[in-house]
Design brief:
Strand content: 25-35%
Structural class: alpha+beta
Number of helices: 13
Distance between the termini: 24 Å
Radius of gyration: 23 Å
Number of strands: 26
Length: 489
């Protein structure tokens, strides 16, 4: 098999347009193997752990016939994809997985929409937990309601519990069919009586619509003594909302905030570029300095020059899309996190630590220090001249990310300075100064005593999944544009 030329490697890293690496591309692939061939070829070129998967080795198959023989063993593309991953979570569910986040779709239109916060959604963001350790029965609880959604006009709110859908009890085996695969459903609400969850006779009918979620859920200023505290609850790094985010910081800047709390408790990540811009808005005094660094697989990194490597760095900015960044020039930032805080959210924490004092409050984060970009079935693996016979696309992990100090080993999560869990019985109202996590952050700023939480041990429930993770986009970090430094290649 022929090796990839260095110039093509550089071009792929820039525009995600890498030509195929081997002689097999000169042989027409049989129609029924097109999708499987695309999956193997794409992962062979860009997968972060390509060197660790024997069946992805450049010399694994002597010719196209040998590869075809292997690919014919898979009737479902999804099964091939899973078998070519490096210890995927689907096969190593007990903590031994290496690749927890690569995914594939059979319709890239849906994938593209999800990466920009556009989903078919009823408007409830929720978490599902087992009702008790080892139980197959689930309980859901509402974390927040998305504005301008179907749910926003219904009698349902943060903290509401549900144990049945359409009269059917939620279990580990039916939750997807009841909540994910239906465009309309009725939640049967429940109450915790101190020992178990019981239906309370209330129900809410919900209908999914195509919904574009603005990730800026709350942006406000809280005055406490001499402190003017900016508070931003930000639920996704969606590039289309970067201008809105900059305007939100403009409002905080005009208000003269002295302190800032960034609430990322339900933020599963998103665009790497958006995270860099947010970090620049929080600070402002580090323009041009490195915020994060990316590293690809050994094949793509081979023979890169110093100039090439520079293009893999994300740097703080003071302007984007012709607009000046509204920066707060802070030296300390307070970040609220939970076990749902991941990816681009974790970059904010890790990327800022070499420069400012980051005070993390809440729960340990997910621990996702790797990212992706969308791989299509075309000669260049981009959407240009994409194969018209199917709409499969992949979102495989393709890079690892570190901060300016070269630290990126946080796969076990980033641990808070001050630990405070969220409990169902003390959920509170988001944005209210008495809400437990926000209250704790305010107390660390002002020196006041935080509101004491009486935790009901019976409500510390085993996490199962949440609405964002059910859509696969729950813990994502991706590149969505061409790095300018590579265009010359």
């Amino acid at each position: 098999m022929k090796r990839i030329s260095r110039s093509l490697v550089l071009l792929f890293l820039a525009a995600f347009s890498l030509q195929s690496c081997d002689d097999k591309d000169d042989v027409a692939t049989s129609p029924n193997l097109q999708i499987n061939n695309f999956i193997w070829r794409g992962l062979n070129e860009v997968y972060l752990w390509q060197a660790d998967v024997p069946n992805l080795a450049d010399d694994r198959f002597a010719n196209q016939d040998a590869l075809d023989s292997f690919l014919k063993g898979y009737s479902k593309p999804e099964d091939l994809f899973e078998d070519l991953l490096n210890k995927p979570e689907s096969k190593y569910p007990n903590g031994d997985a290496i690749d927890r986040f690569s995914w594939i779709v059979d319709d890239y239109t849906v994938l593209e929409q999800e990466l920009n916060g556009i989903t078919k959604n009823s408007g409830i963001d929720f978490r599902l937990s087992r009702q008790a350790s080892g139980s197959n029965n689930l309980v859901g609880y509402i974390r927040y309601i998305i504005p301008n959604s179907d749910a926003s006009g219904k009698d349902i709110k943060r903290g509401d519990l549900f144990t049945s859908v359409n009269g059917t009890p939620l279990t580990v085996s039916n939750y997807e069919a009841l909540l994910l695969n239906s465009d309309s459903y009725t939640l049967n609400l429940a109450t915790y009586n101190g020992s178990s969850f019981v239906l309370n006779g209330k129900s809410v009918a919900l209908t999914k619509t195509t919904l574009e979620e603005n990730p800026i859920l709350i942006n406000k200023t809280i005055t406490s003594g001499s402190h003017k505290i900016g508070y931003l609850m930000y639920n996704g790094f969606y590039a289309d909302y970067d201008d809105d985010l900059n305007q939100a910081f403009g409002q905080l800047k005009t208000a003269g905030v002295t302190d800032f709390i960034l609430d990322l408790r339900y933020n599963g990540g998103g665009s790497v570029r958006s995270s860099t811009r947010l970090a620049s808005m929080i600070t402002g005094q580090f323009t041009g300095q490195i915020f994060s660094k990316r590293q690809y697989n050994a094949k793509l990194m081979k023979d890169l020059t110093t100039e090439d490597l520079e293009s893999l760095n994300e740097r703080f900015v003071n302007i984007f899309d012709g607009t000046a960044v509204n920066s707060l020039n802070l030296t300390t930032v307070y970040v609220i996190t939970t076990g749902n805080t991941a990816s681009a959210s974790e970059i904010i924490i890790n990327g800022l630590k070499p420069y400012v004092n980051v005070i993390q409050i809440g729960e340990t984060t997910v621990g996702k220090n790797v990212g992706s970009f969308t791989v299509y079935d075309s000669e260049s693996l981009t959407k240009t001249n994409v194969n018209p016979t199917h709409k499969y696309a992949m979102q495989p992990l393709v890079f690892k990310i570190t901060n300016a100090a070269d630290f990126g080993d946080y796969t076990q999560g980033l641990v808070p300075n001050y630990i405070q869990q969220e409990y169902i019985d003390t959920y509170g109202v988001l944005g209210d100064a008495s809400e437990p996590l926000l209250n704790l952050a305010i107390s660390k700023i002002t020196g006041a005593t935080a509101k004491r939480i009486q935790n009901d041990e019976g409500l510390i429930l085993p996490y199962f999944t949440d609405s964002k993770s059910m859509r696969r986009f729950g813990k994502e970090m991706y590149l969505e544009s061409t790095p300018k430094e590579f265009l010359k290649h």
